[in-house]
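Protein in question kept in full:
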Amino acid sequence: MMAAYVKQDGVAVAQRHAPFGLLKELERPGDVVRDLGPNWFASVMGTGIVATAGADLPVYVPGLRVFATVVWALAAAALIALTAAWAVPWIRYPDLGRAHTADPVMAQFWGAPAMALMTVGTGTLVLGHFALLYGVPTWGFAMMWLALAAAITARTARQHLPFALTWWSFTFPVGTCVTGTIALAARSHAEALRGATVLLYGFLVAVWLVVAVRSAYGSATGRLFRPTAPAVARP
């Protein structure tokens, strides 16, 4: 560990950084997890969907199955690491963790953990082998996160989250849970999961209707066409 000294209020303060410039933008390496929020799970979503899409590609590409499996393993490892790391700020910095639940921007990412779980779980069914042993627990965790995300989002919307086109991003996590549950039900032949797909699809349609109606109303009144940032003076 290397230390650099900077002056703050006339006093030399040591700033410790890892060698080779790693984490040089942070005061301390421990700050890596300080502000870790649900938005980081979007990286698992993006990685996992690359693996799942590669496995379902309707054409044969040499080496694609191996590539998709490696990417799926990377997504699974990232999911485990992020889940473990995310517990740290809630334990060491509980005020920051609670602040994420009230942040109107961060609230839009509370579906990301559920979507990440379902993406990795679906990849497990497609690419992994005695896959149901992993897929079913993953589905359970995904449903827990979906319920938590829905509750936090609803509370934030009631308090200080005005409608905007970003609300459309809420439909995708729910849709991923629906498609993941459909895949799990098809492979497990479990009647309970078949019933869950119907309930989740009904929830997806309800969310879509709310956002679609609000979008139509906002378009009709012209509110959605107003600039969201200060207007720039034209020459």
Summary: The beta strands are 2-8, 11-17. The CA atoms of residues 62 and 129 lie 20 Å apart. Residues 5-9, 230-235 have pLDDT under 50 and may be disordered.
